[in-house]
Amino acid sequence: MKTLNDFNFKNKKALIRVDFNVPLNEEFTVTDSTRITSAKPTIIKILEDGGSCILMSHLGRPDGVQNEFSLKHIIATVENVVGVEAKFVSNCVGTEAEEAAESLKPGEILILENLRFHKEEKKGDRNFAEKLSKLGDIYVNDAFGTAHRAHASTTIVADFFPENKCFGYLLEQEIASIDKVMKTGEKPILAVLGGAKVSSKITIIENILDKVDHLIVGGGMTFTFIKAQGGKIGNSICEDDKMELALDILKLAKEKNVQIHLPLDVVAADAFSNDANTQIMDVMSISDGWQGLDVGPKSITRFHEVAMQCKTILWNGPLGVFEMEHFAKGTIELGNSIAEATKNGAFSLVGGGDSVAAVKQFGFEKKVSYVSTGGGAMLESLEGKKLPGIAAML
Ligand code: AMP
Questions:
Q1: Residues having CB within 6 Å of any atom of ligand 1
Q2: CA angle, 355 then 219 then 384, to 5°
Q3: 359: CA distance to ligand 1 center in Å?
Q4: How distant, in Å, are the alpha carbons of 89, 271, 272 from that of 100?
Q5: What is the pLDDT of residues 337-351, one digit of tens each?
Q6: Is residue 376 among the annotated active site residues?
Q7: Mean pLDDT estimate for the chain
Q8: Confidence at residue 356, expressed as pLDDT on a 0 to 100 scale
Q9: Using CA positions, which residue lies closest to atom 20 of ligand 1?
């Protein structure tokens, strides 16, 4: 597995797959430049070596060429973040792109138009990948967000650089963070899984039961486990067809010596609304007409005790409906516990969708060891799948 530091980019053109799929507002201005900032160290290393950067990315889900998804909207932000003027070419392949790449000088940056303006990108088309490969001398993959897709620019293009391909710093860091939990994690290891459904997390649960010592289950998933064990869940969300599976998981955890911690109490509400009436109820006996929308105070205390014992912590999914202020406390308190454990020396990784949003919203980003930039890619890694974008680089 080669990384950026295995290469000197002097007078070389680096073809870099970045993930600049950033949110834009109605004026087409970038509203969150995290993904661009994340790629900066890779770009700077190449420029400082005396090389040049050809940046390729997708943006949104265009159907053919659509102005609203043009990467020209992000040029100014890239220039701001990197501190270097950027050139732009309005087609990522073909003569115009080849000429622009050819005339690129050391220290310069070229941004290619949206890869997904060509349907061949998502299809993983070999000819299209070969056309892209003509643009650079060394292929660098720094896009963790798309590493689980076998697209032309994320996977297939690597074939055309048998020796000259490597991970960028971001991708290297993402892989190292996941390995720090899944392969070399210091024990005791804790995984916290929250979110809405058991069905979307089941493969992760099955995979991590072999790796962790403690598993905290929170969020909407809780109630499938509670009902399966004979608890009364009122109107709380539940997947009845997954109750047997929930019992199997509890049994399997016992066999593997994994301690599963379910909430002890919940903040129950009489409607799915921030303005609903609320009451703290025992998780096993939620009144008819009420639903559990957050974990309660006893659960928060218990989860804190568990987190403080652990040396490695993985967090995926909120513990409650954190989008509503009155049901965000469990998620915030868990963030506080993980932050404290991290301060005491634990390694903590937060990844996959809504937990990342929660961590950012409540200001825990700097208080945990690593926040993953990849939603689907992170989840597939936790499921134990080999990501095609990573496999293609080995
Ligand atoms: P996921 O994408 O599976 O991680 O699910 C995240 C979503 O789960 C968030 O939008 C939360 O609002 C939701 N969620 C968390 N706890 C509950 C709950 N007790 N009842 C309903 N939805 C929940």
A1: 195-197, 200, 219-220, 237, 292-293, 317-318, 320-321, 323, 353-354
A2: 60
A3: 15
A4: 7, 58, 55
A5: 999 999 999 999 998
A6: yes
A7: 96
A8: 83
A9: 220
